[in-house]
């Protein structure tokens, strides 16, 4: 019976694939008929291929599943006069294999309607070596032809292998998916870590670089990644500049379980730790499953949320979903940041259901993985928290003032407000002078001020000598009545220049139905509304849109808002 | 014929007072006139199959600018300042009930209209359109926010004044809103379609959810017999930046993505109402098709149902229900009836609007659970329904129905076997090198 054959063995010639420079002849060896073995760093695989008649389009899926069940991965290349070209599987969800091989030698000329079908099986580790005897399965391989180089990427599913051949950007001309963030935005991303923990933290985190973890900042627009470990970059196949400043959502794909994403979003919103099993995609589009442990980090000084840390540990998914779910259920330990002994203990005490033999065999791995992921998380958090403590004990810098006032807006509300592409400020009517609690990036651009110069100051700083007192009175009346109003008022930028501001002020209520903030949306007469200019959107619409978005955000996210309570 | 008495929800000001004198919407929607128009981008019309940019990239917020969001919210806020709503919904207290699921309760005394209860037939899910009754072409002109249509460019476009085409879809405000931004989506308003689901209208609703790019902008549908008020095809939608309890409930996979053209189908577990969950991050057309087929089955079997579209259009929940039927037969507990909660799609999802202060004070997850337990189909009927739906879906799909051609597979199998034999004979048993990771 084929599946029980352990075709283990390997040759030991030098590594076949290195980044950028595969040896051409050795690749061709791969595809000559019935070539016995190829040697790949760290794993040995048996490979065989031959020419077969072109299978019917509907059968592709059947073949893949058949081979999969037998423990093989297979690929198909269609014969064409110039060699072999890509075979596109019938069902769109299967990965696309594309390449062209030139100078391919076959013993027999391929028939026009034939294809090259190959199958590879990864070797089983000998049980005696003391390692667990799981099977690694080779995903359908990918081959790229780039000028004279043929690059083959073999990706192994399961067991957390990094891609054997990570195409560097010179070989793969993949377009950068993210736009270039504005330089000020980039500066914020780069400074985010050092601002809260001091510069030395980056060095100390390098000790953990083998592990995969990221740190995200919820106060920046889009909740971007501000730090990614080398292990993470290896696992996902991205370069550091492709990852910094982007929301981790780009790792998700069509097969990612939406509920896990929802759980994560929930935890971010409630500023709580969580752990999920998630399907992510590498840069090349290959799916891999991970256990993700995520936890918030709070400032030592004022208890405010600073960042979220996520540690990933890849999994092999050779067992049933039911086992996953029940295991997670059992492993729901108390949320802890430090002092994790109880957390680790609670995992140890998990007993997976023993009705399913296969699930029992793999559950040991799963538990181990969870423990590892959790431990990595603890280590990272430990580094960050100690660095933060050191920093807060040091001299107070003036930036901390703004951090104190921003304390009134929780991270999830800030995240929601950051999405609004308008110039506006949120002011707090409960405090004397109605200080500014939040100012959007566009407001800062418009007025010329820096964020720390604005937060906590009364909104009157935009007014000046020539400002019409009547307009100010109108606003004051509207606020007293808890009504909205629109006035045309003369304002001053930081540099002293004047501008006519079509200001719309509206009350904003939270879930208790009381007015908690006032939102002021500015409109500079003639100010180009960025994308809106070409979109036939009147200024009134933009302003009201911002008001609406603020109302929706504050209603649910203000302070404890509509968060779950333990009951 | 089974009926229940209930007070009609007022969705439009003209419903409240027929002789209002305001210009009815229907006349304005006639081709030749001009209305605001929002055009969906082209990518939503075609499945991303061969295209390199998939829907998942579009979820990257840095590229998107939440344009549809802004248009809806702006128009809504505008109507609010003009006083078109019966009350200010943001002035309604809301809270999350203690518990794991976090049911959301709202005290809304203004929603309840003072009209006399009318008789609603609950045993017929499909009823013919009755032009004498209120429908959305009779709504007031100011209640229309804008029309939506499929467009051709890469991004959404907005035109403050555009000539109306036949079969345009209207977005109208709900004058008794449950939450901020509560709107009604009326597909092909001038066609005056009765309240019944078909694939096209579902696809439109899903497209809208996708284009809004906001996971907290949800669309819902109530069939007749499941507390739809007006027999004119419409979806509801609003913004609430809170996860719904139903979204937190686990689910068990019934059919994987691969077997069903990219749409995963699962059964809702550990939730008082039994339901089916459809998930697809990228195949919108298939999603609409799967859900549409199941709805047709429900409509044929005359089972009332509710639909919830959430998570930017990638998750659709289908809830068959029987509360109205049970109410008509007198099987519902008087205490639950006393709260006067009509369990439509929002209530089933976990957002419960209460009329009386004492109900709001006493609200608990336990009460919500009890109420929703009355809504759900029992296990047997649900199981039957599940089988019927899955049968329809799987048999219809080319992959699912695939009888693997014996010839090809056996050939490959033979080849593989031969090769394996050869390898075993010819490989020397060199030990695999130990590698360290």
Automatic annotation (TrEMBL), chain A:
Residues 225-271, 436-482 form the PAS domain. InterPro entries: PAC, PAS, PAS-like_dom_sf. The keyword Flavoprotein applies. GO terms for cellular component: nucleus. Keywords: Chromophore, Flavoprotein, FMN, Photoreceptor protein, Receptor, Sensory transduction. GO terms for biological process: response to blue light. GO terms for molecular function: photoreceptor activity. Gene3D superfamilies: PAS domain. This is PAS domain-containing protein. It comes from Adiantum capillus-veneris (Maidenhair fern).
Automatic annotation (TrEMBL), chain B:
Residues 245-392 form the GDPGP1-like C-terminal domain. The keyword Hydrolase applies. Residues 68-238 form the GDPGP1-like N-terminal domain. GO terms for biological process: glucose metabolic process. Its EC number is 2.7.7.78. GO terms for cellular component: cytoplasm. Belongs to the GDPGP1 family. This is GDP-D-glucose phosphorylase 1. It comes from Adiantum capillus-veneris.
């Amino acid at each position: 019976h084929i599946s029980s054959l352990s075709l283990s063995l390997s040759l030991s010639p030098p590594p076949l694939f290195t980044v950028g420079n595969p040896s051409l002849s050795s690749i061709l060896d791969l595809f000559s008929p019935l070539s016995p073995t190829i040697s790949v760093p760290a794993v040995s695989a048996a490979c065989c291929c031959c020419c077969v008649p072109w299978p019917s389009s509907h059968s592709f899926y059947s073949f893949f599943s058949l081979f999969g069940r037998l423990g093989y991965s297979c690929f198909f290349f269609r014969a064409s006069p110039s060699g072999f070209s890509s075979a596109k599987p019938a069902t769109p969800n299967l990965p696309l294999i594309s390449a062209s091989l030139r100078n391919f030698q076959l013993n027999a000329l391929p028939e026009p309607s034939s294809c090259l079908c190959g199958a590879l099986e990864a070797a089983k580790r000998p049980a005696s070596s003391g390692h667990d005897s799981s099977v690694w399965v080779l995903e359908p391989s990918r081959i790229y032809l780039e000028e004279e180089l043929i690059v083959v990427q073999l990706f192994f599913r399961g067991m957390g292998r990094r891609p054997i051949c990570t195409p560097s950007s010179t070989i793969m001309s993949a377009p950068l998916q993210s736009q270039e963030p504005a330089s000020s935005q980039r500066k914020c991303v780069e400074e985010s870590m050092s601002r809260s923990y001091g510069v030395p933290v980056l060095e100390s985190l390098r000790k953990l670089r083998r592990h995969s973890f990221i740190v995200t900042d919820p106060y920046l627009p889009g909740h971007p990644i501000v730090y990614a470990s080398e292990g993470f970059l290896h696992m996902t196949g991205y370069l550091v500049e492709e990852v910094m400043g982007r929301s981790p959502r780009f790792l998700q794909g069509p097969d990612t379980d939406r509920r896990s994403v929802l759980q994560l979003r929930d935890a971010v919103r409630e500023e709580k730790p969580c752990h999920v099993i998630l399907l992510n995609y590498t840069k090349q589009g290959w799916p891999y499953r991970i256990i993700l442990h995520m936890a918030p980090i709070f400032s030592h000084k004022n208890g405010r949320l600073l960042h979220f840390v996520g540690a990933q540990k890849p999994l092999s998914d050779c067992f049933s979903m039911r086992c996953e779910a029940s295991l997670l259920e059992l492993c729901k330990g108390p949320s802890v940041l430090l002092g994790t002994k109880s957390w680790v203990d609670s995992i140890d005490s998990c007993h997976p259901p023993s009705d399913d033999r296969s699930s029992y065999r793999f559950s040991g791995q799963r538990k181990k993985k969870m423990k590892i992921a959790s431990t990595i998380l603890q280590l990272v958090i430990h580094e960050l928290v100690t660095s933060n403590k050191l920093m807060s004990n040091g001299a107070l810098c003036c930036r901390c003032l703004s951090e104190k006032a921003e304390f009134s807006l929780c991270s999830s509300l800030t995240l929601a407000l950051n999405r609004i592409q308008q110039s506006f400020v949120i002011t707090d009517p409960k405090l004397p002078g109605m200080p500014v609690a939040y100012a959007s990036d566009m407001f800062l651009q418009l007025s010329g001020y820096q964020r720390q110069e604005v937060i906590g100051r009364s909104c009157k700083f935009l007014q000046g000598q020539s400002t019409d007192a009547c307009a100010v009175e109108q606003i004051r009346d509207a606020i007293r009545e808890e009504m909205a109003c629109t006035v045309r008022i003369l304002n001053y930028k930081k540099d002293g220049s004047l501008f006519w501001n079509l200001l719309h002020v509206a009350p904003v209520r939270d879930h208790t139905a009381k007015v908690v903030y006032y939102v002021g949306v500015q409109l500079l007469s003639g100010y180009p509304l960025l994308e809106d200019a070409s979109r036939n959107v009147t200024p009134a619409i933009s302003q009201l849109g911002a008001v609406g978005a603020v109302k929706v955000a504050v209603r649910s996210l203000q302070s404890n808002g509509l968060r779950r309570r333990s009951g | 014929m089974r009926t229940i008495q209930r007070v009609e929800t007022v969705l439009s000001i003209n419903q409240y007072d027929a002789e209002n004198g305001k210009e009815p919407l229907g006349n304005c929607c006639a081709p030749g006139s001009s209305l605001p128009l929002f055009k969906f981008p082209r990518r939503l019309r075609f499945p991303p199959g061969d295209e390199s940019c998939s829907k998942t990239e579009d979820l990257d917020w840095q590229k998107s600018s939440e344009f549809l969001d802004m248009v809806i919210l702006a128009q809504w806020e505008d109507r609010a300042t003009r006083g078109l709503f019966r009350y200010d919904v943001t002035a309604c207290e809301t809270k999350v009930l203690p518990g794991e699921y976090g049911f959301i309760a709202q005290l809304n005394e203004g929603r309840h209209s003072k009209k006399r209860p009318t008789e609603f037939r609950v045993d017929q899910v499909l009823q013919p359109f009755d032009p004498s009754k209120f429908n959305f072409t009779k709504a007031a002109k100011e209640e229309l926010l804008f029309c939506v249509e499929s467009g051709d460019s890469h991004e959404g476009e907005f035109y403050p004044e555009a000539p109306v085409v036949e079969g345009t879809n209207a977005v109208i405000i709900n004058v008794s809103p449950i939450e901020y931004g509560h709107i009604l989506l009326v597909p092909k308003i001038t066609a005056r379609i009765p309240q019944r689901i078909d694939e096209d209208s579902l696809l439109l609703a899903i497209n809208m959810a996708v284009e809004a790019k906001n996971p907290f902008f949800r669309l819902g549908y109530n069939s007749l017999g499941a507390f739809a008020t007006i027999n004119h095809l419409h979806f509801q939608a609003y913004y609430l930046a809170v996860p719904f309890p139903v979204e937190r409930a686990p689910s068990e996979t019934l059919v994987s993505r691969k077997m069903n053209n990219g749409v995963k189908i699962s059964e809702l577990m550990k939730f008082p109402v039994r339901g089916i969950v459809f998930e697809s991050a990228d195949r919108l057309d298939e999603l609409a098709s799967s859900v549409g087929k199941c709805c047709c089955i429900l409509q044929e079997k005359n089972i009332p149902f509710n639909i919830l579209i959430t998570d930017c259009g990638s998750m659709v929940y289908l809830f068959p229900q029987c509360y109205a039927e049970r109410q008509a037969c007198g099987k519902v507990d008087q205490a639950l009836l006393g709260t006067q909660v009509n369990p439509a799609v929002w209530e089933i999802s976990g957002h419960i609007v209460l009329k009386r202060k004492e109900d709001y004070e006493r609200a608990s997850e336990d009460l919500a659970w009890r109420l929703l337990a009355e809504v759900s189909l029992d296990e047997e009927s649900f199981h039957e329904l599940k089988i019927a739906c899955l049968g329809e879906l799987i048999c219809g799909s080319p992959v699912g129905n695939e009888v693997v051609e014996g010839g090809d597979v056996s050939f490959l199998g033979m080849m593989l076997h031969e090769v394996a034999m050869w390898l075993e004979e010819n490989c020397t048993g060199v030990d695999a090198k130990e590698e360290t990771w």
